[in-house]
Amino acid sequence: MSQETTLITEALVPSEKMLEVITRHFGYQATPLEMAVYAYMRHLCPDYDGGVWSYYDLSNGGFYMTPGAREFYELVSPNGYKATMTAKEAGITACIFAFSTLAAKHQSELFCEHYERLQEYVTYCGNKSARKIFAAID
């Protein structure tokens, strides 16, 4: 018996639609989410110094953000894991930490769902990036 795999795709959100998309996903909690992601990025990547971010919509209903200032970041996770990550890998890692923290802090099913959807996307990617991201968040 073969099991059908659901394709999860990502779509870069055009800059003029960013506010609309993040509000659709998180409503009034969009700003706290952004602030939490930026804070985690500063915590995880000591060499991160701000910049413009890109947003991605996932076909499974998920969402993530990536920093755009550089292509690579040195990440140091709270569990001691260290790695050079692409902007996408580092952004996804920061988003997963932020979703988890906000889900616990606000007892929020919304952030739990986004955490699960983003993990599903990372699992679907099933490559070196997935191994790095899961090593950082475990």
Helix-strand layout with pairing:
Elements: E1 10-12, H1 18-26, H2 30-44, E2 53-58, E3 63-67, E4 72-76, E5 82-86, H3 87-106, H4 109-125, H5 128-137
Antiparallel strand pairs: 1-2, 2-3, 4-5
What are its keywords?
138 residues, two-stranded antiparallel ribbon, three-stranded antiparallel beta sheet, alpha+beta, single chain
Provide a descriptive summary of the structure in words.
The chain has 138 residues and is an alpha+beta fold. The chain contains five helices and five strands, in the order βααββββααα. The strands form two sheets. Strands 1-2-3 form a three-stranded antiparallel sheet. A two-stranded antiparallel sheet has the order 4-5. The longest helix has 20 residues, at 87-106.
From the alpha carbons, calculate the radius of gyration and give it in angstroms. 14 Å
End-to-end C-alpha gap? 32 Å
Overall average residue pLDDT? 92
**Widest β-sheet, arrangement of strands:** 1-2-3
Q: H/E element string?
A: EHHEEEEHHH
User: What share of residues are in beta strands?
Assistant: 15-25%
Tell me the overall shape: globular
Count of β-strands: 5
Helix content: 40-55%
The largest sheet is:
3 strands, antiparallel
Q: What structural class do the secondary elements suggest? A: alpha+beta
- Please give the count of helices: 5
Poorly predicted ranges (pLDDT <50, ≥5 residues)?
A: none
Chain oligomer state: single chain
